[in-house]
Amino acid sequence: MPVGRFPFRRTFEFLSSGNLVLKSNVKTVLINYTHCKESLGLRNFIYKDIPQIQFKNQGVQIMTTRNKSNIPVVNVFFGDRRKVMIDVEGKTGPEILEIFGKVAGATEREKEDRAMPKYPGRHNPANFGKYGHCYCICEKPGQAPCPSRVPHPDAKKPKWWQQRGEAAQ
Shortest CA distance to 49 belongs to which of 65, 66, 31? Predict the structure, then answer.
């Protein structure tokens, strides 16, 4: 269990409960908030939703700045050098999340395309074990069989220390 200040925000259950996946061409998100009353919703958004967004989108850089401008604003930078500026002055946290999801969120088709297979190791023939291509390398043609199935030819021979004692007699 995580310890420290606000430990529930670092639990796996909390982080994985977020469902906002960003578009693949989103590179950076810059969030500027102030300590004014108009920025309260953005501060709640940063506190509750940003950890979940970062967990779901680990390739996206998310930066927060304080008091760099007079209004609370969210800037989204895309890979094709586009910049979208979202004015969030006086909005609540869920409203900001909804607007941010419409601007930078991935569509259902993009989410399906980016979905990972359940066991990606099965596609690589070099992986063995429970989630690999096959359980053991002995199942591949041309490999030595497992000693549990076929005994090793030298297994029944006497060991060197056993032969040394017989040679002395």
Answer: 31
- Evaluate whether 124 touches 133 at the Cβ level (below 8 Å): yes
CA dihedral 47, 61, 76, 114 (to 10 degrees): -100
What is the maximum alpha-carbon separation in the chain? 98
Tokens of 109: 């088709």
| Whole-model pTM over 0.85 | no
Looking only at the bridges linking them, the beta strands covering 83-87 and 61-66 are unpaired
Task: Name which of 10, 94, 85 is nearest 44 in CA terms.
Answer: 94
Which amino acid, 100?
A: F
CB atoms within 10 A of CB 79: 11
pLDDT tens sequence for the chain (169 residues): 566 666 777 788 888 888 899 999 999 999 999 999 999 999 999 999 999 999 999 999 999 999 998 999 999 999 999 999 999 999 999 999 999 999 999 998 888 887 766 666 677 778 888 877 788 888 888 888 887 778 877 777 888 888 876 655 5
State the amino acid at position 77 in one-letter form. Answer: F
- For residue 74, count other CB atoms closer than 10 A to its CB: 23
Residues belonging to the chain: 169
Q: How far apart are CA 98 and CA 42, in angstroms?
A: 12
